[in-house]
Structures are given as C-alpha cells and as structure tokens.
Write a structure and sequence with these properties.
The structure holds two protein chains of two kinds.
Chain A lengths: L23 H17 L14 E6 L4 H13 L3 E6 L8 H12 L5 E6 L4 H7 L6 E7 L5 H15 L6 E5 L6 H12 L4 E5 L14 E4 L2 H5 L4 E4 L15 H8 L3 H4 L7 E3 L12 H4 L6 H21 L2
Parallel strand pairs in A: 1-2, 1-3, 3-4, 5-6, 5-8, 6-7, 8-9
Helix pairs in contact in A: 1-5, 1-11, 2-11, 5-6, 5-11
Chain B lengths: L5 H12 L7 E6 L2 H12 L7 E3 L8 H4 L18 E9 L3 H11 L6 E9 L11 E2 L9 E7 L5 E7 L5
Parallel strand pairs in B: 1-2, 1-3, 3-4, 4-5
Antiparallel strand pairs in B: 6-7
The chains are: A alpha/beta, B alpha/beta.
C-alpha cells in the first residue's frame, strides 16, 4: 500500500495537502491543538515562541488577500519569519518553472511553504520535490482542496455544536467549482457526521458526488429541512457569464439564503460562509448579520487552526 | 526507597506556605499535576483569587526534537498578571526546564511583581539555576525513573514511580 504523501513513516503529519485520506485522530489532534491557540490570540502579547527562527514562505500563485493574511498572522503569532510572494502566473505555467521557483526558495533555507495555486495538485508536486524537513501547506489548489478552510469550518461546528455524531449539515451553492466544498465533505465524513447534504442547481453539482457519502438536493426547502449547520459557498462572479447560471439575481431567487429559507432548519442552526460574502447573491444581509451567523467567529478560529497546523507540521516530521 | 505519601507531602507544603502566601497572591498551576496541587492549596490556604493554569507546550525547549504533545490545554490566567504576586505550582520539580517555560508564559501576560515556586516534590537533577521556595518533600530516585502524580476519583493525590528502560 502506498503511504499517504502527507504522513511520515511514524504516521505524523508531514504536509497538509488535503483532508482526504487523513486519519480521524490526526484531524482531531489539529482541532484540539487549535483550541489552545485560541487563547494566545486573546492575550496582550499574541505570540508564542514555537517557530522562532523558522522561515515560512507564503507562495501565492493565485491572488488571495484574505487567506494569505490569515496564514501570515498565524505564522507571526508562532514567531516565524514570514515572506510573502505573490507570483503572477498564467495557466500556461510549466511544471518546470514551478519547481525551479520552489528550489530557489528552498535554497534560501525555507522551513515551510504555504501554497495557493490555480492548478489542482500543485502543492503535491512541490512537496514531492522538497527535502523531507520542509513542510507544505495547501492554501487552495484549483478545484481540488482547501484543507485549512475545512478544518476551521469543522472547528467552528464543534465549538457551537459540541460533537459531530448526530448532526445534519448542508453545504449550499456552487459545489462543482468549489475546493472548499470538497474539503468540507471529506472533513465532515472523516469526523463521523451522519448526514452531509449538498444543495444547488444541477449545473453546479458534480456528477457522482453521492460517492463521497453526501445526499444531493436541488431544492432549498428540502435541503435545509431540520439541518443543524448551513455552510454557504461563495458564488464566484466569473461563473455568472457562462451557461451554468443565468444571473446572480436568478441564483439568489432559487438558492440565496434568506431568513424565510433558514426557518426550515433546526431552531438553533448556525450559518457559515468562507468569505468574502456576496451579499444578495448567495446570502441575504439579514442572515449574514443575523443571530445565527457565525461567519466572523470563523475568521477568528481560522487563525488558531492555521497556527495549530503549522505548529504540528514544524514539530513533527 | 518507598514511594512517599502525596497527601502527607501536600500537608507539609501547606504548612510551609501558610503565613507566607497572602490574600494578594494568586496560584498558577502547571498542567496537569500542578493544577491539582494548586486546587488543594487554594482550599487549604483559603485564598480568594481564582487559580490560574498554564500549559507550557508552546514554550518548551524540546519542541524542535519532540514536536507538540497530543493533549495541549489552554492556559487561563483569570486575573491581572501585571504587578501581581504569583506562586507557580508544580507537582514534580526536576530539570527546571518546565519552570523556565512557565515563567515565559507568565511574562507574555504581563509583568508580575514577584513569582515564587512551590512544588509537591523535588527530585533533584536540575539543569537550570532554578530553586523552589516551598517544597512538600524531597525524593531521591534514579535518572531513568519517571515520577508521576496521579489523582484518584475521590480527589486523593498519589505518586507513582515507574522504572523506564533507556532514555525517556
């Protein structure tokens, strides 16, 4: 059997590339550790010395201010030195040049790479070409995975709901193009959530998604009925022009999360969103700012979860 | 040598602290054994400030070699550290490295007026210039021995010594 490329020979986390294939105890260890990092960010001095003297390179081949910033804050609160590289790239970028870029940075004694890339699998390629003492964190690759987003999402769910074993969770919107959705599905099923639903129009639900262990709904009223958690996805504007969706207004009419639609979920259901919000497209302001929304706590938890991932990676392997 | 009675050591520790640790002082237990000792001292000394707890995992000097342990717990200091009299509480004082790490935790919360150290048992073997102000008792064991404080369901404390083969 081939070893999971994310784990070393002792079963410890070497890279974080995807939630898929991670043992449940590894995921739980990250969540437990993140809980302790929460209090670090609430102190006067928001720093612990774990990664003192280590260099973390944020390697962003695709623009993202938010995710990059949260990784930067997390690394700095671990006392690492952070270098941000925004590398403009096109789909024509050859694998060769990507490896060359990384080899050059590794020669500058990088200890960790946080990689965002438009091509699925790019972080795997990078991890394969590095010495084993250098760690890679996938910060989003193509349509494939966004593991730290999924981890902060399940951290948020555990924070508000306690355990996973009797929850109904709905993921709503553009499942087809969403690396967030894919990682969320793997995280939820790994942690034993008994009912994971995906809700969206037929054109935005990938074929055979049921094989991941989810139930498919094309109607919001049915899809949100009695759920404990509603995880909204961002509808990317670039999808509006194609044949997949008529318009943002049309999407909101059928799949936008409004107070009326949310009313069929459990009374204490929480509403999540990975941000940035498209108000009036996938979510109504009344819901985004409402009492059931945990969208801003997600951001706070995201720092602690990314600190935990980096601390576990740099300490193991 | 026989394993000393943790409850007897605790009684001695209480005696040595009585009159020395006043109402203005706060106890800070080091996870997890130190927290149990701190809870008992808090009751016995009739202190009013709540107990603080610290987990030194994020400050350990062997993190680079051993990584992060599995059960890190949050540190909570439910009082102003700035200008405060603190007594750090540990269960077994050994190399002093845990105490060094705990001091660094405290100073990331503020600048205490004074920090003293109380330990249930001192097993010697210091690797840093650290000494306890209050000690329940001393214990002479082999370097390879592991001394662990345990707490029963009834809340009673007991010490367990296990002989480990090779490097711990």
């Amino acid at each position: 059997m081939q070893r999971n490329p994310q784990l070393n020979e002792h079963g410890e986390l070497q890279h974080l590339l995807s939630i898929e294939g991670l043992p449940q105890e590894v995921v739980r260890h990250i969540l437990d550790t993140a809980r302790s990092f929460l209090s670090v960010s609430e102190r006067e001095i928001k720093k612990v010395p774990l990664l003192r003297g280590k260099s973390v390179f944020n390697l962003f081949f695709e623009p993202s201010t938010r995710t990059r910033t949260t990784f930067e804050i997390a690394a700095k609160r671990l006392s690492a030195d952070v270098v941000n590289l925004n590398i403009a790239t096109s789909s024509q970028t050859k694998g060769e040049s990507l490896i060359d870029t990384v080899a050059n940075l590794a020669a500058m004694h990088a200890d960790m790479f946080v990689v965002r890339h438009a091509s699925s699998g790019a972080p795997y390629l990078i991890a394969r070409h590095l010495n084993p003492e250098i760690h890679v964190v996938n910060a989003g690759d193509g349509r494939h995975a966004h593991p730290t987003q999924a981890l902060l999402d399940v951290f948020t769910i555990r924070h508000y709901k306690g355990e996973f074993s009797n929850l109904k969770v709905a993921i709503v919107g553009d499942i087809l193009h969403s690396r967030v959705a894919r990682s969320e599905i793997h995280a939820l099923t790994t942690l034993g959530v008994p009912e994971v639903r995906v809700v969206g129009p037929r054109t935005l639900i990938p074929a055979q998604v049921e094989k991941l262990g989810v139930r498919v709904f094309h109607d919001m009223a049915a899809g949100l009925k009695d759920v404990d958690v509603v995880m909204m996805l961002r509808l990317q504007n670039e999808r509006m022009n194609g044949a997949l969706l008529p318009s943002a207004q049309e999407f909101f009419k059928s799949y936008g999360l409004t107070e009326e639609r949310l009313a069929v979920a459990a009374k204490d259901a929480i509403v999540m969103h990975p941000g940035p919000l498209n108000r009036g497209v996938e979510i109504d302001s009344a819901v985004a700012d409402g009492s059931q929304s945990v969208i801003l706590p997600q951001v706070t938890f995201g720092i602690a979860v990314r600190m935990a991932v980096m601390a576990i990676l740099a300490g193991g392997g | 040598m026989p394993v000393p009675e943790a409850e007897a050591l605790l009684a001695r520790l209480v005696l040595s602290m009585r009159g020395q640790v006043g109402a203005e002082a706060a106890l800070v237990g080091i996870h997890s054994g130190g927290v149990w000792v701190a809870e008992r001292l808090h009751d016995a000394l009739e202190l009013t400030l709540p107990i603080g707890t610290v987990d030194v995992s994020f400050y350990r000097d062997d993190y680079g070699r051993r990584g992060l342990k599995a059960d890190v717990r949050p540190s909570t200091l439910p009082f102003e550290v700035e200008g405060r009299e603190l007594v750090l509480i540990d269960d077994v004082l050994y190399t002093g490295r845990t105490i060094r790490a705990a001091l660094n935790v405290l100073f990331d919360y503020g600048r205490p007026a004074r920090v003293r150290l109380a330990t249930l048992v001192d097993r010697g073997g210091r690797e840093l210039p650290i000494a306890a102000d209050f000690v329940g008792g001393e214990l002479s064991v082999e370097v390879s021995d592991v001394v662990v404080l345990e707490r029963g369901l009834d809340g009673r404390l007991s010490l367990a010594i296990t002989r480990s083969d090779g490097a711990a």
